[in-house]
User: What shape does this take?
Amino acid sequence: MEKPSIFVLHSASIIGSLVFPTQIEEEIICSTCLIKKQPQKYKNVHYELDSWNGEDIFQGETVFMISERLKTALEENNIKGCLFEKVTVKKSPFFEFGENAGSDVLPNFWKLNIQEHCSGPEVWWKRIPCENCSLNKWSITPAGIDSIAIPFNKEPVPMRTVFYDSWKGMDIFYLEDPDVPIVTEKLATILKQYNGEINLLETKWIL
Assistant: This one.
């Protein structure tokens, strides 16, 4: 299998916020220590828009959402590694359409349900053994804290990397830690062709 270039999908436009009745689905894997399976999953997603300027991809907390036309493009290009779940979008009391919206009617929007995981070195997060059970908790590292401020911090942040032999051909996937997903160049190229600011960070495969 050919190795594609890969990127961390660090962030996308934030044009509103998740609101009730959005629920965070947290799977507790140790009832004594309350260790949670990562990453968190969101269900029944409701998003309140403050504005819309034609964005095809945007973010709410750790959820990435896309427009109907971007969803169609991903399906037509056979993007692997995610499913699509329709989200409920409403306008905030002070909502405004931007000059590039192209319409005064909002399209349908969909949440990216990322299905796949790969593994890699623990750079932004470290496993910390629990004192009470045999499981591990995730603890953010100094590099992980620095990564939150990308692209505003001046110093380079250590790169996340992926073990190539853990990859099964998907175009979007999580690592085992609680952080943001990684995408192939194929998916990154499509995302860059649509409206919405995204921040992609270079990463690489390792053996």
